[in-house]
Design brief:
single chain, Major capsid protein gp5 fold, 3 domains, eight-stranded mixed beta sheet, flat
Length: about 450
């Protein structure tokens, strides 16, 4: 069930379910200060130190397995503890890097457009005080796509850009997929189901007439996604609060979480269709419109001997043209298992990124960590690989709308914020799945 957050009297936030029932209390800072560069460097240093300690402990575990065919319980617990700590340290580094990348509103340094400034001032008056008289004629004059006085008003372009950028950084699938902006309700992409007939002929031989290609199309409708941040009127009256940045930061996480789930497992009904929702077939029997699957040969796990070979098989199951920009997609639990694997030369196949903000790698392939991927279990497709830029398409309809609601949760003011997003597989050759089955 979706939730909304509402400001409480102590400066924290009270989380409410969408039906208005109170949930547990949580606090959240509205400070917009970014971490200093030395904080990121220190976090990276701590992360690398933790990785060295993990490798040392795991080397001991592997040596025990070779000598006794089993590892000591104490050693196993130590490796698992260090592995979990490594996950937490990695998330700390990623969080600090994401904060550093955040671009302040109005920082592009370009010339000020009077019309844009007029719209921005009118929109702020609407958000702070509910004054729509100035905003309504501006949007009617601009004939903006998606503008609707009953459904809210379009946020300023700077705010929309900030929301989109933050969501892209926080949503792992969006970050590696193809993205297209549209002004209508859906995007249609034609593709050829069969090409024209061709063949070899002699220099003076007759040229037989060839058939024309058969075309079909994929459609990606844009569905509505929403968030409902809340504020007290005293917060809105405080001129020191950057109201645009406050709204952007409130909705970006909610949008990113909902998108990420839909892009992986969404059923396509009132939401994007996730790549795991498409029909799956054995890769040897692959046909267009389905995703090819390779099995590990072991139900619910990797083979005991040379487990990394299955990842190599997955990489080479896609055509060479898709491997240059290939990514693994898996959740943290799966990655924690792969982190223990070594290649034939005794090198760990997982390597952390040495540059903050870049993805870690497995077999020198970037890994997009998505917690919406299933964990390793019998018959689950817990790992995906491919060129998601060409394989999966995210469709954004231009415009983010806000409807101010001061009545439903007095004394709080709710901001019903919506955008339209679609998504689906656009190239079924570019993505393959690894299934943990016998």
């Amino acid at each position: 069930m979706s939730t909304i957050r509402m400001k409480n009297g102590s400066g924290g936030l009270t989380r409410l379910f969408a039906d208005g029932q109170p949930a547990q209390m949580e606090t959240k800072s509205h400070s917009f200060s970014d971490p200093a560069p030395h904080e990121v460097r220190d976090a990276v240093d701590e992360f690398m130190s933790a990785f060295d300690e993990f490798k040392s402990a795991n080397d001991d575990r592997l040596a025990q397995l070779e000598r006794k065919l089993s590892a000591d319980v104490v050693t196993e617990e130590k490796v698992n503890r260090l592995n979990s700590a490594l996950d937490l340290q990695q998330k700390t580094v990623e969080g600090l890097t994401l904060s550093m990348r955040r671009t302040p509103l109005g920082s592009n340094g370009g010339p000020v457009d009077p019309a844009t400034q007029e719209h921005k001032a009118a929109w702020e008056a609407y958000v702070r005080n509910g004054q729509a008289a100035t905003l309504r004629p501006l949007e009617a004059k601009a004939l903006s796509a998606g503008s609707d006085t009953d459904g809210g008003y379009l946020v300023p372009t700077e705010t929309e850009t900030m929301i989109d950028r933050a969501v892209a950084q926080a949503s792992p699938i969006r970050a590696i997929s193809g993205v297209r902006q549209i002004g209508g309700s859906s995007y249609r992409k034609p593709f050829a189901t069969s090409g024209p007939e061709t063949g070899w002929v002699g220099e003076t031989a007759g040229r037989p007439e060839t058939d024309t290609p058969v075309l079909s199309e994929l459609e990606f409708p844009a569905m509505e996604i929403y968030a409902m941040p809340a504020a007290t009127q005293s917060l809105l009256d405080d001129s020191a609060v950057n109201i645009e940045q406050w709204l952007a930061e409130e909705v970006q996480l909610a949008f990113a979480e909902q998108e990420s789930t839909a892009f992986v497992t969404g059923d396509g009904t009132a939401k994007p269709k996730g790549f795991l929702a498409y029909t799956q077939v054995d890769n040897d029997s692959w046909t267009w419109g389905k995703l090819g699957v390779l099995g590990t040969g072991v139900a619910g796990g990797f083979p005991t001997s040379d487990p990394a070979d299955k990842l190599i098989d997955l990489i080479y199951s896609v055509k060479s043209g898709y491997r240059a920009n290939g990514h693994f997609v898996m959740n943290g639990q799966t990655l924690s298992q792969i982190r223990k694997f070594k290649d034939a030369d005794g090198n760990y196949i997982w390597q952390p990124s040495l540059t903050p903000g870049e993805l870690s790698r497995v077999l020198n392939v970037p890994v997009a960590e998505s917690e919406d991927m299933p964990s390793i279990a019998t018959d689950t497709c817990a790992i995906a690989y491919g060129d998601f830029k060409r394989g999966y398409l995210v469709v954004d309809r231009v415009g983010v709308r806000v409807l101010r609601d001061p009545y439903s949760a007095k004394p709080y003011v709710l901001f019903y914020t919506t955008k339209r997003v679609g998504g689906g597989v656009q190239n079924f050759e570019a993505i393959k799945l690894l299934k943990f089955s016998s």
